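Hi all, long-time lurker, first post. I run a small reading group and we've been trying to get comfortable going from sequence to structure in the token notation. Rather than ask abstract questions, I figured I'd post a concrete chain and ask someone more experienced to write out its structure so we can walk through it together at our next meeting. Sequence below, copied exactly:
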Amino acid sequence: MRARGRPHNNGPDRSETGGSMVDVILDPKRWESAEPDAEALLESWLVDEGDHVDAGQVLAKASLVHEGLVVAAPAPGVVEQIAVAAGEKFGPGYILVRLADE
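-- Answer (accepted) --
Happy to help. Here is the structure in token form:
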């Protein structure tokens, strides 16, 4: 079954409005030991759209090949869009959440 999340190249881009976005994905190194067709599960979100987040703040919990993982903010910002809902599966390179610069 193909993941229902959004691949890295789709969705709105705020560049036309002057804002910049940070697309957050699961660290590519996490996929290195997984099978080529493996999917991760987004278990839960710890933030909501519109929330301010700090760099390093844990945004979500996920699992890949029976390993619990956390998804952290790479930079401070505001949660603009949650692209993969809790309970959905996703593949490598999928945007999980988009952060807008403040």
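A couple of things your group might point at:
The longest strand covers residues 58-64.
The chain has one domain: 26-101.
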